[in-house]
Amino acid sequence: MALSLNDIRSLFEQYGKIAYSGEPVTQLEHALQSGALAEQAGAGEELVAAAFLHDLGHLLNLQGETPTERGIDDLHQYFALPFLRPVLSDAVLEPIRLHVDAKRCLCAIDETYFGQLSADSVRSLELQGGIFSRQEADAFLRKPYAEDALRLRRWDDLAKEEHRATPDLDHYMNVVERVMNRSLTA
Ligand SMILES: [Fe+2]
Ligand SMILES: [Fe+2]
After folding, report:
1. Residue 74 confidence (pLDDT) above 90
2. Domain containing 61: what range?
3. Which of 7, 43, 45, 114 sits a CA distance of 20 to 30 A from 31?
4. In terms of Cα–Cα distance, which of 26, 24, 20, 12 is closest to 171?
């Protein structure tokens, strides 16, 4: 089963107002801010779409308030992939799939990174397997799209600001549409 463009829009319209667990933004605001930061950084549309869609798994697998406080790793980085794989390319899917491991990697390779994480991100880090060893970080960095996943992760961490102005849902749905069309004609 694949998610259509309309399915994706409906997910954001239906569940976008849900608070992003432990952060002062909603799920939709977090997605829009992630997309906006990617655009501001000059990312290509595939990576902008990945930034916008990276937490779609949260909307497909609702776990209620702050699941990390109940010791739950919702594995949201994998949840949307089977539904997106028929319609999107690896340039979109891989950064999404790797965005949690990117945090584990950045903690290992960037001394200042851990200190910048929000409380909820620190709590989930342990549930997600903790900080990578140097060896694990090296293995991660050799994966295709690892660099994109690291970029996405840094936008993700910044996309938690209350009332930041961004382009709207339509803007990013148009990006996703163009990216889908490219993937389907490739
Ligand atoms: Fe995430
Ligand atoms: Fe996120």
Report:
1. no
2. 5-185
3. 114
4. 12
